[in-house]
User: Fold this.
Amino acid sequence: MTIRVLSPLEAARIAAGEVIERPASVVKELVENSLDAGASRVVVEARDGGLTLIRVVDDGCGIPPGELRLAFERHATSKLVSEGDLWRIETLGFRGEALPSIVAAADVEIVSRAAGHEEGRRLRFEAGAPVDEGPEAAPPGTTVVVRGLFRRQPARLKFVRSAATEAGQIATVVSRYALAFPEVRFTLRIDGRVALEAPGTGDPRDAAAAVYGPKVATSLVALRPDADLEPLGIGLAGLVGPPDVTRSTRSDVSLFLNRRWVRNRSLTFAVEEGYQGQLPSGRHPLAVVYLELPPDEVDVNVHPTKAEVRLRREREVFGVLRDAVRATLSGLSATRVVMPATATPPAVQEDAGAAPTDRQELRLTSPAYQPPLAPAGSREDGAGGQAPRLPVLRPVGQVGALYIVAESPEGMCLIDQHAAHERILYERFLDAVARRQPDVQQLLAPEPIDLTPSHRALLADHLEELRAHGYDLEPFGEDGVWAVRAVPAATAGRDAARSLMEVLDLLERDEGRGDRAHRVAASLACHAAVRAGQALTDLEMRELIEQLETCRAPRTCPHGRPTMLHLRSDDLAREFRRR
Ligand code: ADP
Ligand code: MG
Assistant:
């Protein structure tokens, strides 16, 4: 083996691999530079998930013409003052690695006009080398255009997902900065359409409206710590959602520490703890939290892309955050009922059918339902050649509003009611799509729906499959709002917008698992299936079991979890030492 020194381009590409993992990383670095430059206006544009083009335009301080070349040297930065300053409040970047890394991964053109200069300067790179430089008329500020990202690195390209997924990631990144810097006006344009427009008023609620839609933003409550935190050296502000605005993942608990978006499990947990069990199980809140701590109390993982942080006084900050959320929400529940039906303990929920709640109807008896691939009578004859059938089961009762207990010829079964119903609906949905006969429910009036940019991207990516299930969805107006005209009958009777959002949440969770048709059917099934915590009547239990018996793969849910556990009579006898 011969030792050799890497060429500067090779070395830069290795470093770039750390900083630039996907198109959204380019956007992150360029937007950070714009914010560090004191911009009050940032326009981000992406084409084809950022692979064809990423453009970031700002009105910041610009780069003086004599320093433009230098900005692209490795470790060239105007920001780091000393080693001890690695976690400074004032700037987001500090290593001088972003620009050279981007140049190593794509073709780059920059035009920058520094404050106090008459004109701007242009500099262009191809294949890592400068190819053109000269004066250029330009407004004050900086424009960076990145083209053909990873075009010369097919290995990297393999890790890039669909354009819609990458666009969704870009939208997530821009959304975070819009929330972190509400005083900056942000526009994000994806393939020519405006995906996000944050007005830059300085009010976090306006930024939240841009990201989550006006309806959600109005429901958010300003975080009100119940104690004076100043003596503790902790600054805390933000917005939290009421307990009935929930998500299926924690990704909408946004934490900003000294203006940086950070990940910290314990603090995310503190926010959830503040809800004191008011969240339905498996659901997570929406929150935007701004925390300020003395910089020397924060350990930042110095890996360039990791946002994970550790705090010196983590327990104390945990308590402060949890209590603030708690105090804020307790002020809220005095004025409105916030307890969603699904959070009610099962015992109290027994006769919930009479109350006007969110309780879902079991739609097992729907006359439109045709057992999948089951010609009449096939249950008795075991349908030769198909997957092993279930034994005949007799429901005995329900445990914890979660499991059905059933007797089988060889013992007893515990059936997970949600997983079992998921399996039934999943096969039903797939069969209806295969027959091109989805069960559709028309809405009385089209319902507009505000989607987050990442939800919009998911929607665009799965549109065909969603339509095959009976969704009638159309872009509505110019600003990325969608209108729902019809929904799959299995989701009828619920708030159509919320229901679709939950399906999108579930799709997000399943990203990368199976193909799109599978993901959409599985997400719809999970959404429409009877939930854990719901009491079932004897009739409902019997119907659930009968329909499970007709399934092709009755023993697992669409995600592969078991739908049932079997306790054989032999095993029971042994456990009771009858033998
Ligand atoms: P870092 O941000 O870590 O300093 P970068 O490689 O991202 O490193 O940028 C190098 C330098 O280029 C910055 O320190 C800054 O001086 C200058 N620069 C980059 N982008 C901009 C911009 N949009 N406006 C003004 N200056 C910029
Ligand atoms: Mg930077």
